[in-house]
Every structure is written in structure tokens, then in C-alpha cells.
Amino acid sequence: MKIVALAGGVGAGKFLRGLHRVARDERHLITIVVNTGDDIDVWGMRICPDIDSVTYWLEGSMDRERGWGRADETFNVLEEAGRRGLPTWFALGDRDLVTHLQRSMALAAGATLSETLGNPNRTWFLRRRWRILPMSDDRVKTMIAAEEREGLVHDMHFQEYWVKRRAEPRVRKVWFEGASRAGPAPGVMEAIREADAIVICPSNPVVSIGPILAVPGIRDELRERRDRLVGISPIVAGAPLAGMADKLMPVAGLEVSALGAASAYRDLLAGWVIDELDRDLASKIEEALGVRVAVTDTVMRDDDVAAALARTALTLLR
Amino acid sequence: MKIVALAGGVGAGKFLRGLHRVARDERHLITIVVNTGDDIDVWGMRICPDIDSVTYWLEGSMDRERGWGRADETFNVLEEAGRRGLPTWFALGDRDLVTHLQRSMALAAGATLSETLGNPNRTWFLRRRWRILPMSDDRVKTMIAAEEREGLVHDMHFQEYWVKRRAEPRVRKVWFEGASRAGPAPGVMEAIREADAIVICPSNPVVSIGPILAVPGIRDELRERRDRLVGISPIVAGAPLAGMADKLMPVAGLEVSALGAASAYRDLLAGWVIDELDRDLASKIEEALGVRVAVTDTVMRDDDVAAALARTALTLLR
Which positions in chain A touch B80 (Cβ < 8 Å)? Predict the structure, then answer.
């Protein structure tokens, strides 16, 4: 089976470890289309937080406790950077840094972002069973209009809002700079067209999946494959498990609930997986959106839960 | 007194600590014109080994034992870079890396190399009493034609010859790529014109001082100021104290001796300082080159020796 997964950062990373286990057992192939709206330049290097997060989770090199970056990490460069007056709010670890150096070198040499992923030839893909594609090789920036205080609105990069300002300012607007001029990265449209199953990972619908859907062509192509598309709710009992979806969903006109998250994809979904805690929403979602709903444990404490969740999602499509 | 010093790396760094002490005591101002022929791009960053070496020595942040890089250094990024397949023969420390990141960011933003040095306004220069100018803001590359084996000659960057190949291949030729099209960096010519004393630091005459003299205009301007120019021999008892001058001087037609080193500057020198061990060469050098020679301890075990050496050099010009 060919599977396409649309992915943001940590929630997607956890889920994809489970999906990957299923793929290994059942000989599926996973093409992961990752959000790049979060990408930002730090210290002259290109940082792709969601691509790196998903990669580290799948490779098992992530720091599970901290939730971002690599395990066994040190921060000696960061410490020195602080002493020398470089901005340090976007914390880069010493090991992590090599990822950014390597990517930036390749980009400077003229490679596209897709090419920097060193993506697999067919043999390698078949052996590993997953590959990552950026949503686009064109630059898209997720921007936030944040109200600093009554009437004072300031446009900032999503990372500035989330990491530097810790999601404190009130959000007035979210948009994806450059999205309308961007094109899907090579392989994305083909993968969607050929997919037997398409999974929207439990990621923020506004700033993780939103940018992917904003790349012209992608949403239309997904809609054509609606019968094989399933999503997992990132909202459990009216709150996100991590991140700031509760602050951004209302701005996008979405209720902060498993129903609200599903309605972000109302034109795309055949199935939707929600948590046990939201069992009472199941029939409401089925009626409101005309989708099949599965109820299961979605809180991914470990890879076993993630794998069971992945199986449940795929089963919804049978 | 306004002093100009022409400088390479470590030997210059040690000497300049002494010269700086004299400058502080006697209220001199030192403009250091530094070789940039060694500069190389590593991991997408611009590395300026001689500029950094001189800066670290003057700031006191150098690693005196190791001879290069910074004290209290760690190499976590380097270790990871090795695991990830990046070249590691040019070892960059974690703290040192910030220097290169910062410079590369500024260059990418359109700054000249001079501008990246964050050079002092007048007040700052007067307080600190030293400033560094690169020899040129244009790219000059010191190149080595190295004989790998009989008849097989391979052109390589100086750093590749020196650091990667540990000066093992036989050298057939040394040249400075880009030098003929380069211009002196802003301030260099003015500093030479206004100097009361010009000092050639005990650096490799071929690959440290050679590139500076190869920038069109600089050698001519120095020749005009010959009466106030003094140099310190980097060769003691027929061998360099550090580095590979013994391998490169013969290629440039220079004897590996205090006389040979002086003869690299035969058109420029009023005075030349040699080591006690070379006392018997003093009159020979005076006769052959028509310069005043001072004999003293030139082996800079500490800042006291370096300061005494600096005083001796300046005294030769009185």
C-alpha cells in the first residue's frame, strides 16, 4: 500500500513512528509531505523545524522528553553565541547544528530543498519504507499578526510568535506569505495521486497542515482522493496535547475541539479519528461532516499506542 | 607613535601581545595588517585563520598550548560533523564556530571583510590601542602546486597542503590567486603612509607576509617608508620555530636562515632582528642587505620576552 502522510512537527513525529511500524510489518511505503511554513533563517543557516523534527523522530535521534531537537545534545555553540551577541531565542544544539550547516551548504550550492533531503533512490526507499518531501521547494512563511497591546498589531514570523514570544501576544491573523506563488515540491502531486491511503497527522490544522493545503494544487488534488483520506484529531477534550492550536484555531474560525479540527478538512475527509475522551462527539462529527469516525486512544505515550492509532486510522478506510 | 604591523598567524600573535604591551605603556597605536591568503570556506562559512589567530592572541582567548583556536574549547559540532560525513580535516571548535558564523552572516548580508571586523571608531581604537585590517577585502587564495609523486603535480589551497596533507607533499610552486586583481583594504595604504614605525612580524615570509606584499600597491608604499621599517626573523638557527617555512622558502629561492628570510624583504628593510643563536650572521646580513641588525632572544616563551623583542625592534629605528 502506498501511504501519503501530511505532517507538522512533534505530534506528527510521534504518530509517524507508529505508522512506520505498521508500514514495516505490512510492507507499505510512506511518503511524508512536511510543512515548511515554519522554516526560518537563524545565524545565516536555513532551519526547517518540521522536516528535522519528523526526521529525528523517525530516525530515533529525537529528545523525547524535551520534545524538540536531538537526544544527547549539548549547547556549547549557543552559549558562546549568547556571549557574542547573536540572538539565542531559537535554541540550536551542537549536534542539531550540523543538520543546518549541511542543508545550508547544499542550498548555497544551488540545491533545492527537496534535493537537500538526500532523498532515496527507489532501492533505499523500499528498504527504509519512508521518505520525506517538503510541501514546496519555494519559500513560504507562516506569518502572525500579533496584538502587542490594545490596537498595536505587529506582523511577525510564526517562530517569533511561538518560540521567542511564547505565544503570549493575542493573534489577530495568520497567513502564509509566498504560498500563492509556491508550487508543490517534485513528487508531492504524484504521491497524492497514487496513494492508497492519505493520512493527516495529529498536527496543528492552522499552522502545520494549513500551509501544506495553501500550496496551490495540493488541496484540490487531495479533494479528488477524498475517499481514501483520514485524519487524526490533534485536539483532545477541547485542548491540544501540545502547542498553541487553542490560540490559533479561533482566529481561523475553528472551534477548539475534535469537531472544530475536523471541520478544517471538511472538504477532504472520509474518516476522522478522535480520542476516547471525545467519544460523545463521534455521532455529532459524523452527522455534521459526513465522515466515518473512529474512537481510540490518541495520546501517544509510546510507539505501541502510536502504532495502534495508525492501524485504527488505516482501518477506517477499508 | 603610530605603528603598522604586517602579520600572519601564531608567531605574529605572540609577538603582537608584546608589541601591544609596549603600545599601552608608551601610548602607541597599532594597526595590524593581516594576511588573508589563508582564508578558506569550510562548511559554508568563511574562515580567516590569521585574522582570528591574531585576534584571539590579542584578546587572550587563544589556546597557548595547542597553538591554534580558542582556550576552553570543545569539539562537539566537529564530532557530529564527522559522523554525518562533513569534512573534518579543518578542525573547528564549538566556540570558534561562532566567530565564523557571525562573519559569514555579515558577508552574506553584503558587508566587506573589513566591515565584518567591527573595527573601532576612533575612541575605541584609542582605548584599546590596536585594530586589525585585512590586507584586502578582495579574495586572494594562497595556492600550492604539490608533487604527489614523481611527475604528478596537483594544485591545492594552502590549507589543504598544510592542514589536510600536513605539509607532506613536495612543493613545486606557491602563488596567490586573485592577488593581481586585489586592492588594499580601506585604511591600509593610509596607515602605512602615516606610520612612524612599520614592523614585519616573525611570520612565514612566503605564505604569511608574501600575500600581503603581493597586493598591488602595498609593497611600493612600504618601500617608500623603508627608513622606518623593521622585521623580526621567523627563522632561528636555520629552522622555523613553527610552521613549514623550511619547506616553502627554498621554493621561493630563499635560504632557510635569518639571512634568507631578510632577503625576502631586501628592498624594504631598515632593520632586522635575529636570535642570539644567529649572532654570527649579524654582520653578514648587515653587509649583504645594508640593514641594521639587532641580536636578542626571539623565542617568545611568554609575553615578557615578546615585549622585550618588540622594544628591541622599535629601538632599531631610532
Answer: 94-95, 97-98
Judged against a pLDDT cut of 90, whether residue A68 lies above it is answered with: no
| Buried-exposed string A232-248: b where 16+ CB fall within 10 A, e elsewhere | bbbbbeeebbebbbebb
- Compute the distance between CA of residue B77 and CA of residue A74 in angstroms, rounded to an integer: 9
Residues 6+ apart with CB under 8 A from A133: A31, A32, A33, A34, A114, A117, A119, A185, A186, A187, A188, A191
Whether the CB of A104 is below 8 Å from some CB of chain B: the reply is yes
In order, the DSSP letters of chain A are: -EEEEEE-SHHHHHHHHHHHHHHHHHT-EEEEEE--TT-EEETTEEE-HHHHHHHHHHHT-B-TTTSSSBSS---HHHHHHHHTT---SS---HHHHHHHHHHHHHHHTT--HHHHTTPPPHHHHHHH-EEEEESBSS--EEEEEEEEETTEEEEEEHHIIIIISTT-SEEEEEEEETGGG--BPTTHHHHHHH-SEEEE-S--TTTTHHHHHHSTTHHHHHHHTGGGEEEE-SEETTEESSSSHHHHTGGGT--SSHHHHHHTTTTT-SEEEEEGGGGGGHHHHHHHH--EEEEE----SSHHHHHHHHHHHHHTT-
Q: pLDDT (tens digit, 9 = 90+) per residue, B138-187?
A: 999 999 999 988 889 999 999 999 999 999 999 999 999 999 999 999 99
Is A84 an 8 Å CB contact of chain B? yes
pLDDT tens-digit map of A124-174: 888 889 999 999 999 999 999 999 888 899 999 999 999 999 999 999 999
Residues of A in contact with B45 (CB under 8 A): 101
Smallest CA–CA distance from A41 into chain B, residue? B105
CB B156 within 8 A of CB B144: yes
A81 interface with B at CB cutoff 8 Å: yes
Q: Do B84 and A105 lie within an 8 Å CB cutoff?
A: no
* ipTM higher than the 0.90 cut: no
Single pTM value for the model:
0.91
Match 496535547 to its residue by C-alpha cell. Answer: A241
| Cβ atoms of B73 and B94 closer than 8 Å | yes
H or E segment to which residue B229 belongs:
strand B229-232
Closest CA to A37 of A222, A169, A243, A212: A212
Partnered with residue A3 across adjacent β-strands are A30, A197
Taking an 8 Å cut-off on Cβ atoms, the answer to whether A44 and B84 are in contact is: no
> Which residues sit opposite A5 in a β-bridge?
A32, A199
**Confidence (pLDDT) at A119:** 66
